[in-house]
Amino acid sequence: MTTIENTKPEIAAKGSLKPGIGPAHFGDRAFEWLTLIMAFSVFILIFVIGYELARGSMPAIHKFHWHFLVSSDWDPVNDIYGALPFIIGTLVSSAIALLIAVPISIATAVYLTELAPLWLRQPLIMFIELLAAIPSVILGFWGLFVMVPWLHVHCFPALREVFGFRMFGFHVFPIFQGQDYGPCMLAAGIILAIMIVPIITSVSREILRSVPGLQREAAFALGATRWEVTRIAVLSYAKKGLFGAVILGLGRALGETMAVTMVIGNAPQFVPSLFQPGSTLASWIANQFTEAVGNLFYSALFELGLVLLGVTLLVNIVAQLLLKTFAGPSIKPQH
Fold first, then answer.
1. Could you tell me the pLDDT band of residue 148, with boundaries at 50, 70 and 90?
2. pLDDT for res 15
3. CB of 239 closer than 8 Å to CB of 326
4. Is the sign of the CA dihedral 78, 72, 49, 203 positive or negative?
5. Going by CATH, does the domain composed of 88-283 fall within 3.90.1170.30?
6. What does R_g of the chain's alpha carbons equal in angstroms?
7. pLDDT single digits (tens) 226-275
8. What is the model's pLDDT at position 170?
9. 169 in the Ramachandran plot: left (φ > 0), alpha (ψ -120 to 50) or beta?
10. DSSP-derived 3-state class of residue 144
11. Phi then psi for 332, rounded to 5 degrees?
12. Does residue 180 have a pLDDT over 90?
C-alpha cells in the first residue's frame, strides 16, 4: 500500500506522457502541418501559373474570344491569331507517340520483370535510365540529322507504297499521302515516342514488380503457361498502374518542346498527311517567342500556353475518369 501511494505523485508529475500534451505531440502536429502545406503547394503552384498565363492572355481573349480555339489563321502582320492547328498537332503527335511507345514500353517492362535472366536485367535497366537522362535538345539534333533523313529515304516511301492505294477513287489512308520533305508530324511523333519509352518502361516495371508473388504461384499451380500467368495474373492485376504509367508518358509528350521543334517543320497548319510539316502548342511558342512584336502577339502566345495547360489538365481529368470506369464499381462487403 505504501509503495502505491509513493508512486502516484511521480506518475502525475510526468505530464508529457498524457496524450495531446508535451513535445512529442507538438512534433507530430508540426510534421502533419508541414506535410499538409507541401501538399497544398502543388495546387498553389498550378493556380499561380494559370493566373499568370490568364493575365498575359487577356488582350487576345478580349479580342478573339472563343474563336481563338477554332480559328486556323496565324497572321502576325494583320494581328489575326488562331490556335486550332497547334491544338490538333499536339494531340496528333502525342497519339502517334503513344501508339508506338506503349506496346514497346509494356513489353520491355514485362520482359525485365518476368522473363529476363538476372545477369541481363541490370544492364538493360541501366541503358533505359540512360536514355531517359539524354537532354531533349540532343535527341532533337539526332532526330534532325540522322532519323529524319533515314525516314525520308527508307521509311516514308515504303509507307506510301503500302498504304497509298486507292479504293473507289479515294485514298484509303490519306494520312500517308503527299510529298514529304523530311521534318513532319510523323517524325515528331516518333521522336516523342523515343522520349517517353523510358518513362513508361520504368514506371511499368516498378508496378509489375509490386504484383504479389502469390498471384503467379496460384496461376502456375492451376496449370497456366508462362504467357497465361503474365496475361491473367500479372497484367490484369496491374492494369490500373500501367494505365497511370501511360498517362505520365502522355503528359511528357504533350509538353515536350525542343526535340519536337527541331523535327516537326514548324508550319502553322494542319493537313491530313503525316508527311507534311506541322506544329504543336509547345513547339510554336518556343519558335515564335523571340520573334514576337507587339502586345497582341505576345498575348496570343500566352494564350497558347494557357490552352496547353488546359489541354494537359483536361487529358488528366479524362484519364482519371477512364481509370475509375475501368476499375469498375467497388465491391462492398455484405453484412
1. very high
2. 46
3. yes
4. negative
5. no
6. 27
7. 888 888 888 888 888 898 899 889 988 998 889 999 999 888 888 888 89
8. 64
9. left
10. helix
11. -95, 140
12. no
Give the residue extent of every domain in the chain.
88-283
CB atoms within 10 A of CB 17: 11
Residue 68 has what pLDDT? 92
Paired residues of 81 in beta bridges: 74
Q: How far apart are CA 182 and CA 172, in angstroms?
A: 23
Let me know: does 232 contact 219? Beta carbons within 8 Å: yes
Q: What is the helix (H) or strand (E) element at residue 165, kind and residue range?
A: none
Tell me the Ramachandran region of residue 12: left when phi exceeds 0, alpha when psi lies from -120 to 50, beta otherwise.
Answer: alpha
Distance from C-alpha of 259 to C-alpha of 154, rounded to nearest angstrom? 21
Q: Are 282 and 305 spatial neighbours (Cβ–Cβ below 8 Å)?
A: no
H or E element at residue 170: strand 170-171
Nearest to 282 by CA among 306, 298, 299: 306
207-233 average pLDDT score = 87
Residue with cell 504484383: 211
List CB contacts of 243: < 8 A, sequence separation 6 or more.
319, 322, 323, 326
How many CB atoms sit inside 10 A of residue 120's CB? 12
pTM of the model: 0.83
Find out whether 312 and 251 touch, Cβ atoms under 8 Å: yes
Cα 103 to Cα 194: distance, rounded to the nearest angstrom: 12
CA-based nearest residue to 302, from 65, 43, 58? 58
53-66 pLDDT per residue, tens: 999 999 999 999 88
329 pLDDT higher than 60? no
Cell of residue 51, nine digits: 493566373
Q: Which amino acid is at 234?
A: V
For 169, the grid coordinates are 477513287
CB under 8 Å to 215, separation ≥6 — which residues? 233, 234, 237
Query: Which residues lie below 8 Å from residue 175, measured CB to CB, with a gap of 6+?
Result: 272, 273, 274
Rounded distance, CA 296 to CA 168, Å? 48
